[in-house]
């Protein structure tokens, strides 16, 4: 670290789907396939409407659209299909791998905080090799948009949530992060990121550096 660089965040807390890896097309393809196999139609716009939702909410929506399966089976099907796609080739978002490596080099603790279940998040975290803590959708009582996932991550890391920076791309995830008290960055990926008090909006991960995350942790906006 250069002497002029601001103090490091206590931790950076990362959303996974859409933020670090481009899995949303995989989710939408799995949803489309499952609905079609039960005689229904699922559009790209339908899929975008589920971005960032808890898995149980997505499963109920698909069941309401004609998928005649128990909710746990719907959840398992989606996770297995997406996990297979990620295993075939990790679809990193531009700049994600490099930013994670920079934070590791700077000694910043990191957590993966995702609505996806462990069957997807744990293999990805193992491949990434940089997360100190994993909080998955099936390890919390109340998933995003509740603040519990981010509060849990900070507690497991042993750091104050208000000194953490959370990086998100979905409305539900941003709501969760802001409610937790973390400094929050919204990356504009599949959903427009509307202005909110305390939210820093960026067009992509290329706008973030270790120094930028330090300044965000201090309450300075990079782009609002």
TrEMBL record:
Short name of one Pfam family: HAD_2
Coiled-coil region(s): none
UniProt cross-references to Gene3D superfamilies, sorted A to Z: HAD superfamily/HAD-like (3.40.50.1000), Putative phosphatase, domain 2 (1.10.150.240)
Necessary cofactors: Mg(2+)
Keywords, ordered alphabetically: Carbohydrate metabolism, Magnesium, Metal-binding
Parts of the chain that traverse the membrane: none
Matches recorded under CDD domains: HAD_BPGM-like
Family membership noted in the UniProt record: Belongs to the HAD-like hydrolase superfamily. CbbY/CbbZ/Gph/YieH family.
NCBIfam families to which the protein is assigned, alphabetical: HAD-SF-IA-v3 (TIGR01509)
Descriptive protein name: HAD family phosphatase
Organism of origin: Cellulomonas edaphi
């Amino acid at each position: 670290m250069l002497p002029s660089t601001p103090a490091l965040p206590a931790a950076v807390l990362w959303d996974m789907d859409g933020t670090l890896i481009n899995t949303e097309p995989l989710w939408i393809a799995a949803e489309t396939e499952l609905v079609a196999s039960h005689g229904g139609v699922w559009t790209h716009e339908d899929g975008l409407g589920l971005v960032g939702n808890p898995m149980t909410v997505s499963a109920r929506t698909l069941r309401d659209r004609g998928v005649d399966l128990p909710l746990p089976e719907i959840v398992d099907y989606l996770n297995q299909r997406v996990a297979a796609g990620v295993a075939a080739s990790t679809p990193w978002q531009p700049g994600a791998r490099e930013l994670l490596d920079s934070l590791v080099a700077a000694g910043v603790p990191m957590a993966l905080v995702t609505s996806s279940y462990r069957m997807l998040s744990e293999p990805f975290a193992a491949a990434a090799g940089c997360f100190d803590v994993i909080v998955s959708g099936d390890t919390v009582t109340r998933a995003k948009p509740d603040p519990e996932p981010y509060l849990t991550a900070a507690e497991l890391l042993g750091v104050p949530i208000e000194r953490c920076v959370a990086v998100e791309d979905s409305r539900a995830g941003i709501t969760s992060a802001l409610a937790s008290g973390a400094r929050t960055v919204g990356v504009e990926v599949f959903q427009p990121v509307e202005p909110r008090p305390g939210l820093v909006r960026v067009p992509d991960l290329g706008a973030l550096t270790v120094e930028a995350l330090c300044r965000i942790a201090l309450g300075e906006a990079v782009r609002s």
